[in-house]
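seq/struct pair 1
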Amino acid sequence: MQIKEIAADEAVLELLRQSGLPTADLGDGYVRFFAAGVGNAPDGVVGIGCFGPVALLRSLAVKPVRRRAGIGSRLVAHAENEARKHGASEIYLLTEGAEPFFARRGYTKLPREHAPEAIRRTREYAELCPNSAVLMRKTLATEDATGFLQETLPTPDGAMITARVFTPEGAARAGVVIVPAMGVAQPYYAAFASWLARRGMLALTFDFRGMGLSRAGPLRRLRADIIDWARYDCAAALDALAARVPGRPVYWIGHSLGGQIIPFVPNRERVAKFITIGTGSGYWRENAEPVRRRVWVLWFVLVPLLVPLFGYFPGKRLGIVGDLPAGVMRQWRRWCLHPEYAAGVEGEAARALYASVRTPIVSLSFTDDEFMSARNTESMHGFYVNAPRTMKRFAPQDIGVARIGHFGFFRTELAESLWERELLPELG
């Protein structure tokens, strides 16, 4: 879907009127409009006004026949990116009926009198929006020890994903993309990404389409599988990272799923080294004992029953993995039921893709991983037959902790024992 800047012509004004939105102040000149769609009749529009460190998002309207297609979410993301480009760190809006929509996208409600002076001076605030309109705000750039900038990235197939970029104080000596595990949202990796930035590397985290900050619209309407995540979303993240560190090495840190899907990423040749964390094949009969005793219920009962019923996998309400698109869950189920996982299900073409990877791979796995057994880990990395492989396996007692598990590597208490001693030497 193409989004481009347009003038506030009659087609835009008519769409705003049909949506019950004010138009009387559009001649004031501070609003820029962006439209989604093809031709002179846009499917949706959004306006943005920038006032130094703050911006006003307004006039979001989508044709009724095109609603629930994710257009509104993409227009909002585009407007947020425009605000960032013009130096805004906060974006405000006034709404009468769309508070839940914006709340799902990170906006929070504020008392109306808390609007910045620049927003209060606009006619939309002062005259056109009734007192019943709710003021909402979103922080566009959140600073921590190193800071991150949240951005929306276009994918090769026209979708949009949300990424966060953690930038070092000086010039970056390398770039690192952190590819998430199944069902894990990117904030989980924020402390780790900040640590990388403090070590002089530019780190990028992201959410696959339909997940976390990249979720736009109902999951039941999303048509995507795991290979789409690799082919399009990972490719977009890699391109964005490489563009920010020209001439510097790019590293891939893949957590679980993030180490399984490497062959399906078309631009993976950009990567100097792949580092997999807790990555195994996922074949259910070889899973670690704690999960093997109950995972058959997921694959043979819950998924076949719930995915057709809901149109997606409602894992959040079950406390299992999280909500996942139907295509992702069905493909993952097929993989996990096959002894050779993705290589066995996707056929000889997939097996050839695994064999075509020749970039060095370093595997970090853990003896107390509740999902991945040693056999899972060996099997998965065995498909990378032509890649130089270094396999490292750690027990909690080796590093003086009680537990690591499938998710523990990214805990800050392991920064010295695993991040500093074991990972950092692998990053040049």
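seq/struct pair 2
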Amino acid sequence: MKIRSITYTLDLNRVGELEYNKKVQQRIEIIRKEFDKGNVEIRTVRFNTSLLELKDELFFEDYRQKLFKVRELALSCDVRWFNLPLDLWGCPKAVFQTNCKTILLLIREFRELFVNVLIPAHVSKDVLKIKALVELMRDISKISSNGYDSFRFGLSCNSVVNTPFFPYSFGNSDNGFSIALESVSPILESIKSFKSDNRVCNNVDLLNAIKKDLIQHFCVLDAILDKTNLKQYFTGFDASLAPFPNEDISVLDVLEEFGLEEFGSYGTVYVTESLTYMLKSALLESGVISTGFNGVMYSLLEDKRLCASNDNDRFDINSLMLYSTVCGCGLDMIPIPGEFIVEEIASLILDVSSLAVKHDKPLGIRLLPIPFKWYGDRTEFNMDFLADTKLMSLNNTSLNI
């Protein structure tokens, strides 16, 4: 089983101190070395900062200097991306809007920066702040001509601390680290092995066989962590089924093995819920620490086969919201027209937030408005980690807010 990401949490106020940086470098080297010895590939290591709970202004120059230090540390550790999680809801409305402008400046300044804004449970009391975030989303999309930069901005509802998947990550433990796993390929291997030994099988038997194999994978990884002598800093695995576009790893490959002929058809909710339950059970029975989503991620622009289904109009945004009640991520990597009604996107955020609270599960929102494009037009990213598809339609109706 490959590791998608080691997400390592930093104290933003200490980055740049010689001894602190040295300790971070040494620990990351140890983690990489031990997993390499165990023949486990780590795709990326990423930096996450501890959650900033702001009640006052986010001063651009102050955080610009802090993030320059994070960038320097990242370069010294061969880390490509870093994430800034923010809780802005203690800010007065005027300060909140000012902070949104500062976030825009920081994202424009640091091309390797992700930003995660936490959404509180009772967000309906702060609709004006939600609308300010929607306007920020639109402004970020205009940094580049293809809307790519919106990929680095997310909203987290009912968040789980130490989630390793960007941008929905935030930490509360300095030098703590969590691990995002790649579960799709090992699950497909388990399915192939089970079906070769069993000509007739049902989904229950198949799920149990997969769970048994996953437990073994988790225990192997956990044993490697023991060898690092850093286990006390480990904050959990997230074993979500997540796509990987530049290797054509699609979540839909797994769904098909359970008899789902077309994503979006009746039965999609059932298969999604079955896989999510199996993942959570495997983690629980293995005894390892878990965190994050641990579900099935329908991250549209990261899954080539999901993009093809979207091109054929097999599902819509309402469908994805339905699936999010039993799966892992919410509305993630959804391309939408560059011009939209602010109130409609704000209403969409309220819907996702309500689902997260109702079902007591983390859900994320990462919409990508594409400048100068409309429903039916295609994205044009041409990047190794993003697929292309046509823009999803909006209803052009909303709450009167």
